[in-house]
Write a structure and sequence with these properties.
Blueprint lengths: L1 E2 L3 E7 L5 E7 L14 H23 L10 H30 L4 H23 L3 H21 L6 H5 L9 H22 L6 H14 L1 H17 L4 H17 L5 H14 L8 E2 L3
Helix pairs in contact: 1-2, 1-8, 2-3, 2-7, 3-6, 4-10, 6-8, 6-9
């Protein structure tokens, strides 16, 4: 899946070997909120989530030739909602609950433990699922996306052979964004815990703490978006490269080296998103 200022395009290789793609115009859909710093991050994230559900449905259905096995829009939405719920529970709520019980009377230690648990759970999760054959293939296509983007950014002809020579690590990757979210959440949550009064009742204290974690996620997403936006545009500075290094290192797990056939699919998607003529692929309705 590739997105330009005007188009969102998704390319899929069907079981028959044929590459199909669809594109939708997104240039006029951005609202005024998407231009406001520290607000646009949450808006962009929500926008990407909504569009991602639709593209996931298209991708899954194109890879299944039998109609009865195809994914409906409702099933895709339910899958996404459940996944988000599990993600928030595992990476936000669960670490907060554990740290609150272990260090009930020490907010400093509680926040430090919560931070360590959140990062550990996140890294461990993406590492464990990388051993799955299907996820490994997804990570290879992830790497193909990055390589094709580098090819375009370096003003080279968009071919699999040209893309092959680039790295799979990219500073604007969603993996880097998620890591920034994790780190910023540590700072924001810690500040809120010290600013707000602490209820005397232990259960109330834990409930308020957990609810705040969930409510503050849009704010954290907004701050994280601005940090990633700035860092990706200022990699010529040493301190910015140092800031981006952890996210790029984490991409060594979430991106894998693609083959030429996977790069071919990524090239189709980026060409379609740029409004260029696409060869060796068929445009279909979503």
């Amino acid at each position: 899946m590739m997105r330009s200022p005007e188009w969102l395009a998704t390319a899929v290789r069907k079981p028959s070997g044929e590459i199909v793609y669809k594109k939708i115009k997104v240039g006029g859909k951005r609202n005024k909120l998407a231009k406001i710093p520290f607000v646009r991050g949450a808006v962009t994230l929500f926008d990407a989530l909504v569009l991602g559900i639709k593209e996931l449905t298209f991708s899954a259905n194109q890879s299944e030739e039998e109609e009865e096995k195809q994914l409906s829009q409702k099933e895709a939405v339910m899958t996404t909602v459940v996944s988000l719920g599990l993600g928030i529970g595992l990476f936000v709520v669960f670490p907060s609950l554990i740290s609150s019980f272990v260090f009930a009377d020490n907010r400093i230690y509680s926040n430090l433990l919560e931070a360590v648990l959140r990062l550990a759970f996140f890294v461990f999760y993406i590492w464990v699922i990388s051993f799955s054959k299907d996820v490994k293939r997804v990570y290879e296509y992830h790497g193909a996306e990055h390589k094709s983007i580098y090819t375009y950014e370096n003003k080279m002809e968009l071919t699999p052979e040209n893309a092959k020579g680039f790295t799979t690590l990219h500073p604007r990757c969603g993996t880097s964004f998620l890591l920034i979210v994790m780190l910023i959440s540590i700072i924001v949550f810690s500040c809120m815990d010290f600013i707000l009064p602490v209820p005397a009742n232990g259960i109330e204290r834990i409930i308020i703490k957990v609810v705040l974690r969930v409510i503050l996620m849009p704010l954290i997403a907004g701050i994280s978006y601005e940090i990633q936006r700035y860092s990706s545009n200022h990699l010529d500075k040493i301190w910015v490269r140092a800031l981006a290094f952890p996210g790029l290192s984490l991409q060594r797990i979430t991106t894998k080296e693609p083959d030429l056939s996977q790069l071919e699919v990524a090239i189709v998607a980026i060409k379609a998103a740029l409004g260029e003529e696409v060869e060796n692929a068929t445009e279909v309705e979503g």
